[in-house]
Every structure is written in structure tokens, then in C-alpha cells.
Amino acid sequence: MTTIKEIRELLATVKDLDNPLFLEFEKDTRSGVQKEINKRKKAIQAELDEDHRLESMLSYEKELYKQGMTFIAGVDEVGRGPLAGPVVAAAVILPKNCKIKGLNDSKKIPKKKHLEIFQAVQDQALAIGVGIMDNQIIDQVNIYEATKLAMKEAISQLSPQPEHLLIDAMQLDLPISQTAIIKGDANSLSIAAASIVAKVTRDNIMKDYDNQYPGYDFAANAGYGTAKHLEGLEKLGVTPIHRTSFEPVKTLVSTKKDK
């Protein structure tokens, strides 16, 4: 009789739910065999669901492929809302019909999976560009304009140059055709790839700043206004990486000047 271990190994090679091996093994009354069948069916269904999700996130890219375009860049940013640190944008060109398992809006990817998916994007992308605008530029031109500058910088680094840009809810004054997509990081794989590159890049920057400026919990909060961050501001004051045009930093700076 075939052992349960042998059946598990055979089922691991099965890729579709109507494979005749399932019918054959379903005749086996051992509970361990039935458990392995159910486990493999669930795994196959999860793979099919993921493939369907990824396929739906390629809809914008596929329309552009039909128009004869190959080099399509997804563009996204991270860090518009924090009180400290830079805004980081990324631009990514993926190969045609490229699907990376687990790739999604970076906010929807579990933190423990960030590096793994970031590495998969690094391994498979045709081109990646990163633009970083620090807090001083943000304070000079405002966060919206700084975001655009970061995106342009990221795009300028791409080689090959993109034929079209898919951008998360933004239009850029560049001589490249583009599509602004609301919630683009959840609706386009190219933008999702840019989202995870920008996220991991910025998180690493903020971890370095946490070592440089301890007491604000930058490694955990990435510069957002958490309770620990606000507590650090009250106790330790404003650092050189804080955005002085953002409240409550702005008030703290003006209060210090008035003293």
C-alpha cells in the first residue's frame, strides 16, 4: 500500500483541481490521506486565486501591450504624511506579463514579507529608479511638489526609458504618455512594485535615522506621528530631519524661537 508520505509527495506535483490523482486517492479511506487531499486542494485553490488577482492587476499594462508598448513604468511614493524624514518615490519597469506572487499595495503586504517581495522585484524588474527628497526640500516647496520631484528623479534613472507611465493618482509634466490611477498601488502590478521598492527604501532610511536620533522610535514609526514620536518631540525637541512646515513640529519650532 502507498504510504501517506508517498501520497503527499505525489500530490505536491499536482497543479490543477481536476487531476485524476485526486479521484484515485479519494478512494483511500485513511483519514491521513483525506487530510493530505484537502490540504493540497486548498493550496491549489489559493494559487489559482492569487494568479487571478495578479492577472486582474495587469489590466492597465495589458491594454498598453495591445498598443505595442513594452516598457511600462509603475510610479509610486511613500512618506507624504510623516513628521520627519524624506518622501521617497520609485519607478519600476517589469517584464511583459510579469507576475510576482504576493505583490500588492505595500500597505497590504505583511511587514515580514516586505523584504522577500522587494527582493523578487529587484530580481525580476527590467529597470528600477529611486527618487528621494529630504525634509528641507519638502519644507521649501511643499509635500505635493516634493513628491512630484521625487517621482521625476526616479523616472530619470530608468534605462530603458519608459514608453508610458502608470502613476498612483498623480500627473507629471513630462514628455511621456501617462495614466494616473486612483489607488494605483492596488490596481496595477507595476505601481505595486514601485510601492514596495519605495516603502522598503524609506523604512531603511528611517532605521538609520533611528540610530542617529534615538528617542523618537523612527525605526518603528518611520517618522509618522505616533505617541512615542510625539513624546520624543516633547522631551528632546526637533531634529534636523523633522519637517518644520508640518504640525506640531511647526508650532514647536516657533515656540522655541519666541523663547
Automatic annotation (TrEMBL):
Transmembrane segments: none annotated. InterPro entries: RNase_HII, RNase_HII/HIII, RNase_HII/HIII_dom, RNaseH-like_sf, RNaseH_sf. Manganese or magnesium. Binds 1 divalent metal ion per monomer in the absence of substrate. May bind a second metal ion after substrate binding. It catalyses: Endonucleolytic cleavage to 5'-phosphomonoester. It is an enzyme of class 3 (hydrolase). Pfam families: RNase_HII (PF01351). Endonuclease that specifically degrades the RNA of RNA-DNA hybrids. This is Ribonuclease HII. It comes from Streptococcus oralis subsp. dentisani.
